[in-house]
Design a protein that fits this description.
It is built from 22 helices and eleven strands. By secondary structure, it is of the alpha/beta class. α1 packs antiparallel against α2, α1 packs across α12 and α20 packs across α22.
């Protein structure tokens, strides 16, 4: 039992907390009902209220039950306050005034001053509560009797009665047999009792003794109809209809006339009342909780009326913000991926072994031919610029997308041109037509003109490809020319070593600074939304707490608990994708000179176009895809629809495109599907996948040096691009 009342106390606290959040007017009916039912829920006494219009004999009936003129009657025929009758060792009266004053008197004479209507039939406004203590055995069992003011007299009295009915475990509705169930009584029965979950009701007919026998029989039939039409929730075997002649019953009790008390119907009614109370009292929760359910339902609807508009507004804001953040995070990750990939390609290109492998032969020949500066500008610088642009463009994308910080230029300077000191002229040969001299930079071409220069150039190719057998035996014997070639090769190796060391150092520093640019700051939440979150959270907590407390006392609800809306952090936060990067090419000491294993077979390779490897084509295609994805996300960020988080991306849709209207358009689309090797009405995702596969197969860069296949690939690519455009735009 103690555990049960602990649950009731928690439920009452939850109801009061919810009421406070609703900011109800103190005089509003819901507020009054909440206070009444909460107080009643934890009241250990069993309350029986007598209810009915004025002048129906309510006080007289209660006096008859008590066996004394405890309550005021006769002077003014209407009780002016709700009088609670409790057990006490002697008859006493306690009056609590609104200002907190307590008036305690022996007997009940003080009731005539505070508990009856005045000459204008008005209740006293300074009375908060009236209690009478009486030594009656029925009350000693934990029963409280409640004498309510008469209804249908004044609105103020009706409001008091309506409020007090919620605190009654059993309601005795007193009826006047002379005017049975008036319209107002039927309305009160429906509005004040049934609709509020008050169904433990007993009907008692008074004044039957004033009717003729034939009239009594007719009234009895009508009373039976009333009782049967109202589904009282009383213990099985008990009637909800009784007859008591209140005034004769009181007189009989005052005289001690048992026979008269029996004939008035009082004894039978008291017996039934005690038995009903004995069954209901131990299980008061089954009586009180239906009333709690009715009030809790009103509170829940009122809370939802406050919660839902705010929750919808906050969720809409969060959805928009989350969509923006998700797009920005995806963009940052893609940009970072593109940047780091391009950076690694540039870093790999800058390593000394890679530079020597790719450029040493051509650079040495250019140096020997006094053409190094031209080679450096048109070949070497051009290749570096392309790689630099491929890297820096991602930082430009980051700035354009996030507007955080403009990137700095990636400046990689070139070392001074290589210097070569020529050997002295041999005394036993005329091969070198000039006396021994020194050539600085690229100025050796004048000394190596004609056949001599050609021999040196050939020696460069030979020395860099010692593993290649040559049929020119004379070349191997001309050691002087080979010595000049070695000087050129060494000078170029030193040039690339200085360039690689300085460039890698600059690139590492640039990487550390640039990675911080690929980020974005989370926007601050508007103060208006923040304030609404602070309003919403306690409302939702109160709603959910009320649901939990109702569930504890086995009151089911059609409502679902609210999920907590997370608070939006207004602290300065940045998102920066910094995954652990695995470098594809190992770092080499740029100061260590390394001889590459495989170099171009001869100097003639510098004038030939080299076909790119398939992985280079794959890298170009991947780069194109990243750019396309970032462009799409930029468009989403600018589109209002994208912020709802509900619009499906065109590239992610698996729905077939809309059908064209004209036959010409149909033919173009049919042909486009055929070019890509797809069935008609394939999804856009399938179109993109087919296009990706075919581009990797027919990219013109794969067929450099193969004129016939190159032309075929170029024609194929024109068809593929046209088909992709038609299918992606329709």
């Amino acid at each position: 039992m103690e555990q049960q009342y602990e649950s009731y106390r928690d439920l009452a606290d939850s109801l009061k907390s919810a009421s406070a959040l609703l900011n109800l007017e103190r005089k509003s009916q819901l507020h009054q009902d909440i206070i009444t039912i909460c107080n009643h829920l934890v009241n250990p006494s069993f309350r029986i209220a007598v209810f009915g219009p004025f002048n129906h004999g309510k006080s007289t009936l209660l006096n008859a039950i008590l066996g004394n003129r405890t309550l005021p009657i006769d002077l003014i025929p209407t009780t002016g306050a709700a009088i609670t009758i409790k057990y006490g060792s002697d008859v006493r009266t306690r009056i609590m005034l609104v200002d907190g004053t307590e008036i305690f008197r022996s007997g009940t004479e003080v009731l005539q001053q505070f508990a009856i209507l005045d000459g204008n039939r008005q209740m006293r406004k300074d009375v908060a509560s009236v209690e009478v203590f009486c030594p009656h055995p029925f009350l000693e069992t934990g029963v409280e009797l409640l004498d309510l003011p008469g209804t249908n007299d004044r609105d103020e009295q009706d409001n008091l009665v309506r409020e007090q009915l919620l605190s009654a475990d059993l309601v005795i509705q007193l009826l006047d047999a002379r005017k049975l169930m008036t319209l107002s009584e039927r309305e009160n029965l429906r509005d004040w009792l049934l609709d509020r979950g008050i169904k433990t009701v007993i009907f008692v007919a008074n004044f039957m003794n004033l009717l003729e026998p034939d009239e009594q029989k007719q009234v009895q039939n009508r009373l039976r109809f009333v009782a049967e039409s109202f589904r009282s929730e009383l213990p099985p075997g008990f009637s909800n209809l009784y007859r008591v002649d209140a005034l004769p019953a009181l007189r009989a009790r005052l005289k001690g006339d048992v026979a008269a008390a029996n004939s008035s119907g009082l004894v039978a009614f008291e017996t039934a009342l005690q038995n009903i109370m004995g069954i209901l009292q131990p299980n008061r929760g089954s009586v009180r909780l239906p009333r709690v359910e009715a009030i809790a339902s009103q509170i829940q609807f009122s809370l939802k009326a406050k919660i839902d508009p705010i929750a919808i507004e906050i969720k809409s804001f969060d959805d928009k913000q989350n969509t923006k953040i998700e797009i920005k995070q995806k963009a940052a990750n893609l940009i970072y991926k593109g940047f780091t990939t391009s950076l690694e390609e540039l870093r790999d290109w800058l390593t000394l072994p890679k530079l020597l492998t790719k450029y040493q032969a051509d650079a040495a020949v250019a140096l020997a031919e006094n053409n190094f500066k031209n080679w450096q500008t048109n070949i070497f610088k051009k290749d570096l610029s392309q790689l630099q642009f491929a890297t820096v463009k991602w930082l430009d994308q980051a700035y354009e997308f996030f507007q955080e910080e403009r990137p700095q230029d990636l400046l990689i300077p070139f070392p001074s041109e290589p210097q070569v000191i020529l050997p002295s002229k041999p005394s036993n040969t005329d091969d070198l037509s000039e006396p021994a001299s020194i050539a600085v930079g690229g100025g050796i071409g004048w000394f190596l003109g004609g056949p001599v220069g050609a021999t040196v150039v050939g020696s460069i190719s030979y020395l860099l490809n010692k593993n290649i057998q040559t049929q020119d035996e004379q070349l191997a014997k001309e050691s002087d020319h080979q010595e000049v070639a070695k000087l050129c090769i060494t000078a170029i190796e030193d040039y690339f070593s200085r360039f690689s060391s300085q460039a890698l150092s600059i690139l590492n520093e640039y990487e550390q600074k640039s990675e911080k640019l690929i980020c974005f700051e989370f926007s601050q939440e508007p103060l208006e939304i923040t304030n609404k979150r602070e309003i919403l959270q306690p409302l939702q907590n109160s709603f959910n707490q009320l649901l939990r407390e109702l569930e504890k006392v086995k009151i089911l609800s059609n409502h679902q608990p609210y999920k907590e809306i997370l608070k939006y952090s207004n602290t300065n936060r940045k998102y920066s994708p910094q995954p652990k990067r695995v470098r594809t090419s190992p770092q080499k000491d740029p100061g260590v000179k390394q001889q590459p294993e495989n170099i171009a077979k001869n100097s003639q390779t510098r004038v030939k176009s080299v076909s790119p490897r398939p992985e280079e084509v794959e890298a170009k295609f991947r780069d194109w895809e990243l750019n396309e994805e970032i462009g799409r996300m930029k468009a989403e960020m600018q589109s209002p629809d994208s912020q709802t988080g509900k619009k499906q991306n065109p590239t992610q849709s698996n729905k077939a495109p809309n059908q064209p209207k004209t036959q010409t358009e149909k033919d173009k689309i049919t042909r486009a599907y055929s070019i890509l090797g797809l069935q008609a009405n394939a999804s856009l995702a399938e179109v993109k996948q087919a296009y990706r596969t075919l581009v990797k197969k027919w990219h013109p860069d794969l067929f450099v040096g193969k004129p016939q296949l190159l032309k075929q690939a170029q024609e194929k690519m024109l068809l593929l691009n046209e088909a992709y455009t038609i299918l992606s735009e329709k």
